[in-house]
Amino acid sequence: MTLPLVIHPDVGTEIEEAAVWYEARRVGLGIEFIEAVDRALFDIAEAPGRSPIWSAPWRRAVLRRFPFVVFYEVDDARVVVMAVAHARRRPGYWVARRMPAEPG
Length: 104
What we know:
By secondary structure, the protein is an alpha+beta fold. It has one domain (5-86): 2-Layer Sandwich (YaeB-like fold), CATH 3.30.2310. The chain contains two helices and five strands, in the order E-H-H-E-E-E-E. A hairpin with a 5-residue loop joins strand 3 (58-62) and strand 4. The radius of gyration is 14 Å and the shape is globular. The protein starts with a strand and ends in an 18-residue tail after the last strand.
């Protein structure tokens, strides 16, 4: 069952900063990082219960090849992605994040 992904606004910045860092190390590596994140997000949407629980209610999906983790929460109607975080730096920095209120 595919669920819609709702992505915290800070996640885009996290992905972009990491991609820029990787691209500076080797041309094309930043694109490979973005592709790895995209694959992980697709897999999460397709089977959100597949990844292990990190700390309830959060689940974590580890990226292949890169030391990053996608942290997310699943409810009945959607998957909320709260962070794409480096696995070895500032653990749990994102836990206090809240999703902005929906307009309207």
